[in-house]
Design a protein that fits this description.
Belongs to the DegT/DnrJ/EryC1 family. The chain has 397 residues and is an alpha/beta fold. It is 38% helix and 14% strand. Helix 3 crosses helix 4. The chain is globular, with a radius of gyration of 21 Å.
Length: 397
C-alpha cells in the first residue's frame, strides 16, 4: 500500500500568544487607526516601523496595507510615471507586474536562469531600456546581488527589491531589501510573518521615505511616525505628493511586532524542513534540485525543483499522482493560470515578446509550500512520495 500524506499545505501555525495579547490590548482600547493614539502613546504601527527599521539597519520604514501596495508606492516614490518602462523578472508573481501596471508603467521582462533568479546577462543587455528595476526575489531565491548592483549602478538604474519571500534572507552578509533604494516586504498569511495582509518598506533615502509616507495617507500627521525623516523633508514634498491611502492599522501592527522579534528562530525552523525535503529529492532521476549559493542565507518557506525538458503531459502526470497521495504541487508551466502560478504570458496588459529561455525553465518549475505545521518526519515522507512518483513517470516515458 503506497503511503499517503494527510497534512494541509495551507494551514498556518496559530498566532503567538504574546501577539494575541497585544491584539487584545488594541481591541480593548479601540484605537485601531494608526493616528488615533492617546497622549504620550506612540502607537503600535509607529513602534513596528521603528523596530523593523532597526532590525534591517534602515533609516526609514513605513508599514502599509499590503506588500503589493508597498511595491506600487515605492515605484511612485522613486519617480516612475505613466508610460515609463520598468525592468522586472520574467519569473515572478502577478502583484509585481501588477504594481508596475497600476502606476501606468510598462513591465519589461528579464529572462530567468535555472537557479530561478534573474538572468544578469540579459539584465545587462536590457539596462538601457529603463531607469528602474523592480527585482523580485521570487520564491526566496537571491541572485548575485553584488553583480546586479554593479550593472544597475553603472547604468543609473534605481533598484526596488520585492522581498515578499526573503524577509530575513541575506546575500554576502547584507540583508535582502538593503541592496537597492527600497526594500518591500509582505506580511500576508503565507509569508514569513502573518497579519493576514500587510506590507513594510524600508529605505535610506529621506525623500523616498517622505513621499511614501505622504502617499500612504498620513495627511499632515507625519510627525507621528518614528522611523521617518524630519519635518523639513516633508515640507519639500507635501504639496506635490498625492494621498493614496493604504495605511497599516494598529491591530495588524500589534500582531506583527512579536512575530518579527522571533523571525530568526522561525527561519531556522523553515530551513530544517526545507533541507529535509531537499535531501530526500537529491538524486531522483529526471529531477533537478535548485542549488543554493554559498553567499546566500535563505528562508525555506517553499521549495522548488525542476523537471527540465519534460513533456507537458508527463509533468501534469507527476502533479496528478502526487496530489492523489496528498502532496500539493504547483506547476508554473500550466497554459492557464492556476491559483498563484500565472506567468509573464498571462499578463496580457503588457506586450512582451517570447522569452525562449524563460519558457523552457517555467515549463519545468514545480513549487511546493513548506509550512511550519509540518514536522521533519512529514517533510521526509513528502520527499519520498515525490521521489517515487517522479521516478515512476520518468521511467515510463
Amino acid at each position: 500500500m503506497s503511503e499517503k500524506f494527510t497534512g494541509s499545505f495551507t494551514q498556518q501555525e496559530p498566532i503567538p500568544e504574546d501577539a494575541i495579547e497585544a491584539a487584545l490590548a488594541v481591541l480593548r482600547h479601540g484605537r485601531l487607526h494608526r493616528y488615533n493614539v492617546a497622549e504620550g502613546e506612540a502607537g503600535e504601527t509607529a513602534l513596528l516601523e521603528q523596530e523593523f527599521a532597526a532590525q534591517t539597519g534602515a533609516k526609514y520604514c513605513l508599514a502599509v496595507a499590503s506588500g503589493g501596495y508597498a511595491l506600487a508606492t515605492s515605484l511612485r516614490a522613486v519617480g516612475v510615471k505613466p508610460g515609463d518602462k520598468v525592468l522586472t523578472n520574467a519569473f515572478t508573481l502577478a502583484p509585481v507586474p501588477g504594481s508596475i501596471a497600476s502606476v501606468g508603467a510598462e513591465p519589461v521582462f528579464v529572462e530567468v536562469t535555472e537557479s530561478l533568479t534573474i538572468d544578469l546577462d540579459d539584465l545587462a543587455a536590457k539596462a538601457d531600456m529603463a531607469k528602474v528595476l523592480m527585482l523580485s526575489h521570487m520564491r526566496g531565491h537571491l541572485c548575485d546581488m553584488d553583480r546586479l548592483m554593479e550593472i544597475c549602478d553603472a547604468a543609473g538604474i534605481t533598484v526596488i527589491e520585492d522581498c515578499a519571500h526573503t524577509m530575513g534572507a541575506a546575500w554576502n552578509g547584507v540583508l535582502s531589501g538593503r541592496h537597492g533604494a527600497v526594500g518591500c516586504y509582505s506580511c500576508q498569511t503565507y509569508k514569513h510573518v502573518n497579519s493576514g495582509e500587510g506590507g513594510l518598506l524600508v529605505t535610506d533615502d529621506e525623500e523616498i521615505a517622505a513621499r511614501a509616507i505622504m502617499m500612504s495617507g498620513s495627511y499632515m500627521l507625519y510627525g507621528r511616525h518614528l522611523a521617518a525623516p524630519g519635518p523639513e523633508v516633508f515640507e519639500r514634498v507635501k504639496y506635490e505628493t498625492p494621498n493614496i491611502s493604504g495605511r497599516m492599522d494598529n491591530l495588524r501592527a500589534a500582531i506583527l511586532r512579536p512575530q518579527l522579534r522571533d523571525l530568526g528562530t522561525q527561519a531556522e525552523r523553515w530551513n530544517g524542513r526545507y533541507r529535509a525535503v531537499e535531501e530526500g529529492l537529491r538524486g531522483t532521476p529526471g529531477l533537478t534540485v535548485v542549488e543554493r549559493p554559498a553567499q546566500e542565507v535563505y528562508v525555506g518557506s517553499s521549495i522548488q525543483f525542476l523537471l527540465l525538458d519534460w513533456s507537458e503531459e508527463a509533468v501534469q502526470e507527476v502533479v496528478r499522482r502526487c496530489g492523489a497521495r496528498g502532496v500539493e504541487l504547483k506547476w508554473f508551466g500550466t497554459p492557464e493560470p492556476v491559483a498563484f502560478t500565472s506567468r509573464y504570458d498571462s499578463w496580457r496588459y503588457a506586450e512582451t515578446p517570447r522569452l525562449p529561455q524563460s519558457d523552457r525553465i517555467l515549463a519545468g518549475i514545480i513549487d511546493m509550500r513548506v509550512p511550519l505545521t509540518f514536522s521533519l518526519e512529514d517533510c521526509a515522507q513528502i520527499a519520498r512520495i515525490i521521489r517515487a512518483e517522479v521516478s515512476a513517470v520518468y521511467q515510463s516515458a
